[in-house]
Amino acid sequence: MKTTVRTLALGLMAALLAGNTLIATAQSGTSSMTDPELAERHYRRGNTYNNLERYDEAAEEYQLSLAADPNFSESIRNLANIYYVQERYDEAIVLLQRYIQLEKEITVSVIASFNTLGQLLRDAQRYDEAIEIDLQAIEHDPENVSQVYVMANTYFNAGLTEDAIRVYEKALTVNPDDAFVHRTLGRMYEDVGRESDALLQYRAAAELDPESQFYRDLVSSLEARLGQ
């Protein structure tokens, strides 16, 4: 049995390098030859090696776990984390995509996976994919405002102002009382010629932070330009 599982593991690894096996598994369903107990056993061995920072051996055990059960989500997540540490980012992306597809509950691990996946996709300049992940990450982790700024700045610096706007708009749907986000969104609206929308955001910022002369000046300046 051990030889058979190791043979399957080698096949799985080759497919992972191609970047499509786990997604194909999701589409075709779980194999009738899965062995959850064996998957659990290799997963626990992988954790032991992982804790010792013996990452190559840990990765092999997680691969064996997935050969026994391709939907063993904790092995998928831990293998993705190892690939991240080893800077094997394309492989980590595939596994993180698979992990968040499998998980139905929003846990700390799932939130972290959304954030990491979005970052990896942005770093790879796969912006069309990244923006959809980032919007979900914001919804699941509304208090992580610093991450919102990182996301939006990345899109803005890449010349994707509309995506940066989507990030701030999403942030305000889950955390509407952040004056600085209102102000920043207003600036971006101005950049794309949406002055009336910008004014609404500046007014919101000024209402949320009435002590700020800066926000009041933004409101009065834009009102004067718009003749209001």
CATH architecture of the domain at 1-104: Alpha Horseshoe
Look at the structure and name the CATH superfamily of the domain at 1-104.
Answer: Tetratricopeptide repeat domain
Structural class: mainly alpha
Question: What's the number of helices?
Answer: 13
Give the helix proportion (percent range): over 70%
First-last Cα distance: 79 Å
The profile of the biggest β sheet is: none
Counted beta strands: 0
The CATH topology name of the domain at 1-104 reads Serine Threonine Protein Phosphatase 5, Tetratricopeptide repeat
Query: What radius of gyration results from the CA coordinates?
Result: 23 Å
Stretches with pLDDT under 50, minimum 5 residues: 1-31
Provide a concise account of the structure shown:
This protein is mostly helical and 228 residues long.
Verbal overview:
With 228 residues, this protein is mostly helical. 79% of the residues lie in helices and 0% in strands. The chain has a domain at 1-104: Alpha Horseshoe (Serine Threonine Protein Phosphatase 5, Tetratricopeptide repeat). The protein contains 13 helices and no strands. Mean pLDDT is 89; it is low at 1-31.
Describe how the helices and strands are arranged.
Elements: H1 2-18, H2 21-28, H3 36-51, H4 55-68, H5 73-85, H6 89-102, H7 108-123, H8 127-140, H9 145-157, H10 161-174, H11 179-191, H12 195-208, H13 213-226
Helix pairs in contact: 1-4, 3-4, 3-5, 4-5, 5-6, 6-7, 7-8, 7-9, 8-10, 9-10, 10-11, 11-12, 12-13
